[in-house]
Amino acid sequence: MTSAQRGRKGMAFGVGRLLAGAFMLVIWISASATGMLPGPTEVLVYLASMRPEELFAQVLKTLYNSITGFSLSFLISMALGLISHKSNLIMGFSEALSEIFNSTSALVWSLVLVAVMGVLSPLPPILVVAAVTLPHVLTATVSALSSADPGLLEAIRAVGAKPSDEFFEVILPSSVPLLVSASRVGLGTALRISVVAEAFGSSGGVGYMIIRSYNLADASGVLAWSVVLIALVLGLDQLILKPIERRAKRWLE
Amino acid sequence: MAGMMLRVSSVHKSFSEPVLTDISLHLKEREVLGLVGPNGCGKTTLLRIMAGLETPDRGDVKVMGKVGIVFQEDRLLPWKTLWENIALGLKYRGLRGEELIGKVKEYSEMVGLSKSDLALHPRKASGGTRRKAALARALVLEPEILLLDEPFTGLDVKARISLREALRLIWSEYELSTVIVSHQLEELLLLTGRVYVLTPKPARIAEEISVEGMDLKSRLDRVKEALYHILSRTPGSEEPLS
């Protein structure tokens, strides 16, 4: 593909994205015209009236819950993935664990963990995120770690590589693009899930603010905090995760 | 035996079916030996057995020196630059700093890689450059026996000539015994002094031909005649060589 063709493709892609945004805005404006929802102007006014320190505190709380929960699931996945690589028993255990966790909804995890740990415990949102993202991250990790090219492993063995060199020089680098892509999807999921968990058992976070506004019949508040969540997910993805993914895959281009 | 670098004695190898049957051959000191035979006859398996990457079911392989192998596919790590790929084996042997840099530089120059080539990742490099990097990766460990699996496959004429010249330079500078497996008969016969012709699978040694002192045309005629003779006795075989 020439650079001009790439430029045209990129331009069309960008226009498509703008159109999707405009489409959602039109639906929102149409719905607000019927009186069902507050319109974008009311929500903007609500957002402008928020105290910045409160906004940051709630956003940080949600980010903390999501990133901590996701990191926990990533660490468990890496550990299981590495042992699965050597043991069929652990491979079977990981697969079954993944299937069980995948069949359990975020709502069930939230209710059970809040019931066990209490509404005021900071742990349920973190653990719900870890439990819900674990099957996806675990599946991606196991498949990434076993996707190393045997030809490359043989080639470095032929020049004297030890098993630890095989891991650090071939197995880990060849899994990085898959792991980074999985992490990008996983972190987005983590943010959305943490909000559900916060709504059930937390004293802060974007999810807590959404449910609090709902309980106060404050529709503008519900939408304003929802907009904050969408901006957070998109900002994290586009400004941080996507550039990291591009960098991790640069040798593939 | 004095002056002998490698000896393969009565080697048999099967995977799901027999691949090699009673193969015996030898490689002399500083010799360039060719292995030719029909497509899929087991030449690469034989080379891998010589390199110790496969174990024969029966028979014996004696290797008198360090072995380096260059695979048919370049097998360079795509996330590392060519420089880093060449340095890998030295790093595993604990070399660092100036000594490592000096060796990588020496062998990269020997195979004809420029400084800008070495900064490339494999995907950005041409087929010829990648092949030279794979050759340098094997040479930098200073093997006494070099095994080359289809070194000219997939290269254009210019890259083939360049690689051929690089190999000649290496042989003139270092004490190296070499086995080359290649379908490119002309390239192979320009470099080798002796050729073993293998039969279709399960491969046996059909003939050992010394082409030393012959001009290229006579070498080609002699080896092609041997190959046609083998193929004419094998129903269903096609002309597999260029």
Q: Tell me the fraction of residues in β-strands of chain A, as a range.
A: under 5%
Percent in helix of chain B: 25-40%
Please summarize the sheet with the most strands of chain A.
none
| Pattern of helices and strands of chain B | EEEHEEHHHHEHEHEEH
What is the first-to-last residue Cα distance of chain A? 12 Å
> Overall 3D geometry of chain B?
globular
Compose a concise summary of this entry:
The complex is a heterodimer of chains A (about 250) and B (about 240). With about 250 residues, chain A is an all-alpha fold.
Description:
The complex is a heterodimer of chains A (253) and B (242). By secondary structure, chain A is mostly helical. Chain A is built from ten helices and no strands. In chain A, helix 5 packs across helix 6 and helix 6 runs antiparallel to helix 8. The longest helix of chain A is centred in the C-terminal third of the chain and has 38 residues, at 163-200. Chain B is an alpha/beta fold and 242 residues long. Chain B is globular and about 55 Å long. In chain B, the strands form two sheets. In chain B, strands 5-6-7-3-8-9 form a six-stranded mixed beta sheet, with helices on both faces. A three-stranded antiparallel beta sheet of chain B has the order 2-1-4, with helices on one face. The model of chain B has no long low-confidence stretch (mean pLDDT 91). Chain B has two domains: 1-66 and 148-242, P-loop containing nucleotide triphosphate hydrolases (Rossmann fold, 3-Layer(aba) Sandwich); 74-142, no CATH class. The A-B interface holds A 151-152, 154-156, 158-162, 165, 169-170, 173-174, 176, 251-253 and B 51, 53, 68-69, 71, 73, 75-79, 88-89, 92-93, 121, 123, 137-138, 141.
